[in-house]
C-alpha cells in the first residue's frame, strides 16, 4: 500500500471538500492504491474498500481510534476508544457472488460497490435506496422481486461482506443499556484528514508570512524541520 505524501493528501482533501461520502471514500482509496485504475477501485466491494481504508488510516494517523456514540436508551453521548485491529473482519473479494434459494429456483447477486452507492445517491429515502441497490446487484433474470426476497438478499449480502457494515457494541456508563453504534471508516478517516489539513494550512500560513516560502515548499518539508522553524515563533505574536 502507498503511504501518500503531504502534497497528495492536501490535493485529495481539496478535491473531496463538498463531495459525497462515497466520492470521498474513493478519493481516499485512490491515495492508498494510486497505480490502480479508478474504475477498478469503484468496483471493490464496500468491505474490501473499507479494509484498505483501515490500513490507510493506520499508516497515516495510527491505529488508535476515538469516536463518539449516542446511547439509544438515554441519549447520553459516550466516548468510544478502540484500535484498528479490533474492527477488522472478513470482507468479500472483488467479483464475489452470493447465491440464495428463492421461490422457483435460486437468485444470484453480486456485492454492492462504490459505483452502486454513487448511482443510488439520488434516492428519495433509505427504503428506496435499498431497493434500487438490490435491483442493481441482482444477476440474470429474476421474476418481480418481492419484499421477502429483498429481506433475504439484504441479509445474505451483509453476511458475505461483514467489513462493509461495522457496528460497535457500546455500553452506556449512565444507564447501562447497550447500543449498536454504526462505525464508518471512510467518514472517520475523512474527518481525520480534515483536521490534519486544517493544522497543515495553519503552519503554511505562519511560515509563508514569515519566510515567504510557497505552500508546496512548506508541505514538502520534513515535520522535524518544520517544527524547528515553528518553535522560533514562540516569542513572536501569531
Ligand atoms: Zn444510556
Descriptive overview:
With 238 residues, the protein is α+β, with helices and mostly antiparallel strands. Helices cover 50% and strands 17% of the residues. The protein is built from 10 helices and 7 strands. The strands form 3 sheets. A 3-stranded antiparallel sheet has the order 3-4-5. Helix 2 crosses helix 8 (185-211). The site of zinc ion has 8 residues, from loops. Zinc ion (ZN) binds at residues 71, 73-74, 76, 172, 174-175, 177.
How is the topology of this model organized?
Layout: H1 6-16, H2 21-32, H3 38-42, H4 46-61, E1 64-70, E2 77-83, E3 97-102, E4 105-110, H5 114-119, H6 126-137, E5 138-139, H7 147-160, E6 166-171, E7 178-183, H8 185-211, H9 215-220, H10 223-231
Antiparallel strand pairs: 1-2, 3-4, 4-5, 6-7
Q: Quick gist of this model?
A:
The protein is an alpha+beta fold. It is built from ten helices and seven strands.
Keywords for this structure?
238 residues; alpha+beta; three-stranded antiparallel beta sheet; two-stranded antiparallel sheet; 10 helices; globular; binds zinc ion
Radius of gyration: 22 Å
Total count of helical runs of at least 4 residues = 10
General shape: globular
Listed once per kind, the bound small molecules are: zinc ion
The largest sheet has its strands arranged as 3-4-5
Total E-strand runs: 7
Amino acid at each position: 500500500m502507498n503511504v501518500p505524501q503531504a502534497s497528495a493528501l492536501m490535493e485529495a482533501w481539496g478535491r473531496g471538500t463538498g463531495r459525497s461520502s462515497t466520492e470521498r471514500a474513493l478519493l481516499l482509496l485512490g491515495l492508498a492504491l494510486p497505480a490502480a485504475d479508478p474504475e477498478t477501485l469503484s468496483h471493490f466491494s464496500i468491505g474490501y474498500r473499507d479494509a484498505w481504508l483501515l490500513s490507510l488510516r493506520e499508516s497515516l494517523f495510527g491505529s488508535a481510534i476515538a469516536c463518539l456514540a449516542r446511547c439509544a436508551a438515554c441519549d447520553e453521548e459516550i466516548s468510544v476508544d478502540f484500535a484498528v485491529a479490533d474492527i477488522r473482519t472478513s470482507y468479500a473479494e472483488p467479483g464475489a457472488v452470493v447465491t440464495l434459494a428463492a421461490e422457483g429456483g435460486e437468485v444470484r447477486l453480486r456485492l454492492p460497490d462504490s459505483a452502486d452507492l454513487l448511482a443510488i445517491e439520488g434516492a428519495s429515502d433509505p427504503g428506496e435506496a435499498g431497493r434500487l441497490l438490490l435491483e442493481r446487484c441482482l444477476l440474470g433474470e429474476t421474476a418481480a422481486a418481492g419484499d421477502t426476497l429483498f429481506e433475504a438478499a439484504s441479509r445474505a449480502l451483509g453476511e458475505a461482506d461483514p467489513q462493509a457494515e461495522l457496528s460497535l457494541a457500546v455500553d452506556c456508563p449512565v444507564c447501562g443499556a447497550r447500543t449498536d453504534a454504526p462505525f464508518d471508516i471512510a467518514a472517520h478517516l475523512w474527518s481525520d484528514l480534515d483536521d490534519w489539513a486544517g493544522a497543515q494550512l495553519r503552519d503554511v500560513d505562519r511560515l509563508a508570512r514569515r519566510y515567504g516560502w510557497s505552500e508546496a515548499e512548506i508541505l514538502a518539508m520534513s515535520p522535524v524541520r518544520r517544527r524547528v522553524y515553528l518553535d522560533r515563533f514562540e516569542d513572536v505574536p501569531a
